[in-house]
Design a protein that fits this description.
Strand content: 5-15%
Shape: globular
Largest sheet: 11 strands, mixed
Strand order of the largest sheet: 1-3-2-6-8-7-12-13-11-9-10
Helix content: 25-40%
Order of helices and strands: HHHEHEHEEEHEHEEHEHEHHHHEHEEH
Oligomer: single chain
Distance between the termini: 21 Å
Low-confidence stretches: none
Mean pLDDT: 97
């Protein structure tokens, strides 16, 4: 098997091939590292590549196969971790010069679990500083690019992860999402990404933005994401809000399909200004759910825009984390991040508590929506991929900083599972994502619906030419 063919093989297939000795862990890891070496200089998807350690781990994994040892579900499969998630012995800089030389002495829970499942870490993927924005560039790591068009942004803040998965630089990526940071780049790069229910996957250390932030899988297939979620889910004492897994078999329940589900389709949520190409592609995708046996109903206005609730909670967290670093680092951090810190510093305790109460009320409004519907569909983003190095599209200037991600951040407030699935392309050949949202703890339902759509409209064979 050629290395590029192996690099684009789904992780579940790679794991099975390794178990059956058709592929060795050394070959699987070398396929990813070879692609990284050739392609990453153009994409800047990885900020750290752990080639030497990965090759050593691959040789050990191959020896285990030959000995007939019991193998984990990801034995010998390469994966990457976003640079906001700590990794023992591997630099975690949070995309910032402030932590340029930070080497953690422990793994985050999700990394521990992927290692224990037999996965092999091949590197850390790029992020803007502390994941503060929906694109991926930073003073430390430079500009990351979209594999479908190198002049375009991959989105963010898990932009390096999405670009890596789309370009065959590893089949599995750990991303984080505080306002859409898994779903935004998933949409821009044409890969699948899931923000799980808050607490299903433990988050540690405490992130800058608290319970707005989630950790989740980014993959080329829904089955790969379901397998990752099954491994990452479950309680960890370091995260007091994490809870026991729901008992769902995320992989096997994918076969259940989506028939008879009550589905709300909203092209704007009542407030978003959506690009025509995005509306056209996502509307056609939503209508496919009727063919899958769902009852799809158009809902023009879903709720009031929660921008005034989300922004204070996010900005206050960023400011509290970073304001003490300003005397030394002010001139060496992203200017946009500095604006957010200053805005967060101006918030009063009263304004912050008002936002918290607003969050609780907003959750109840959305909870009631899901008494009537099993799923909510929307565009993942209001815009198409725009120029790399920009914070947001030109058409959003004069509007809220969040206007182009109007569909994603509401569900960081509610903590519900929300996924992006590739659903087509613009006239210029750029990916478009459809967002699938479920009620709290209905992660398996979101995965089932995504898998049914994937079977009807396969996307994994679509690859950027680079």
């Amino acid at each position: 098997m050629q290395l590029d063919e192996l690099a684009f093989m789904p992780a579940t297939d790679v794991a099975e091939a390794i178990r059956k000795k058709r592929v060795s862990p050394v070959e699987a890891v070398e396929a990813a590292l070879s692609r990284i070496e050739r392609v990453n200089p153009r994409l800047n998807a990885y900020c750290t590549v752990t080639a030497e350690a990965a090759r050593a781990d691959a040789r050990a994994a191959e020896a285990a196969v030959l000995r007939g040892d019991r193998l984990g579900p990801l034995h010998g499969v390469p994966y990457s971790v976003k640079d906001l998630v700590i990794t023992r012995g591997v630099r975690t800089a949070f995309g910032s010069r402030i932590y340029e030389h930070n080497i953690p002495d422990e793994d985050a829970p999700v990394v521990e679990r992927l290692r224990a499942a037999g996965g092999i870490l091949v590197g850390k993927t790029t992020t803007p500083e502390f994941g503060w924005k929906g694109t991926t560039d930073s003073p430390l790591t430079g500009i990351s690019r979209n594999p479908w068009d190198l002049t375009k942004s991959p989105g963010g803040s898990s932009g390096g992860a999405a670009a890596a998965v789309a370009a065959g630089l590893g089949p599995l990526a750990v991303g984080t999402d505080g306002g859409g940071s898994i779903r935004i780049p998933g949409s821009f790069c044409g890969v699948f990404g899931l923000k799980p229910t808050c607490g299903l996957v433990p988050v540690y250390p405490v992130p800058t933005t608290g319970t707005l932030s989630h950790v989740g899988p980014m993959t080329r297939t829904v089955r790969d994401a379901a397998l990752m979620l099954a491994i990452m889910a479950g309680p960890d004492d370091r995260d007091p809000l994490s809870f026991p897994a729901t008992g769902s078999d995320f992989v096997h329940e994918l076969e259940t399909g989506a028939r008879d589900l009550r589905v709300a389709w909203s092209p704007t949520f009542g407030y978003a200004q959506v690009a025509p190409d995005v509306r056209r592609v996502t509307e056609a995708a939503a209508l496919r759910f009727q063919e899958l046996g769902c009852r799809v109903e158009l809902v023009e206005r879903v709720f009031e825009d929660p921008d005034p609730i989300w922004a204070p909670l996010f900005y206050a967290g960023v400011a509290a984390r970073l304001q003490d670093a300003l005397p030394v680092w002010r001139d060496r951090i992203d200017p946009g991040l500095l604006e957010v810190i200053e805005e967060g510093k101006r918030l009063s305790a009263m304004a912050f508590k008002k936002a918290e109460f607003g969050r609780a009320a907003f959750y109840q409004d959305v909870r009631k929506l899901f008494l009537r519907y099993d799923l909510l569909l929307s565009p993942t983003l209001a815009t198409v991929p725009f120029a790399a190095g920009m914070e947001r599209p030109l058409e959003s200037h004069g509007r809220s900083r969040l206007s182009w991600v109007a569909f994603t951040y509401p569900f960081n407030l509610t903590g519900q599972p929300a996924a992006t699935v590739p659903c087509g392309f613009t006239a210029d050949g750029l990916p478009v994502g459809l967002q699938i949202v479920g009620a709290r703890l209905q992660d398996v339902l979101v995965l089932r619906a995504a898998a049914a759509f994937e079977a009807a409209v396969p996307w994994a064979a679509s690859r950027p030419t680079l």
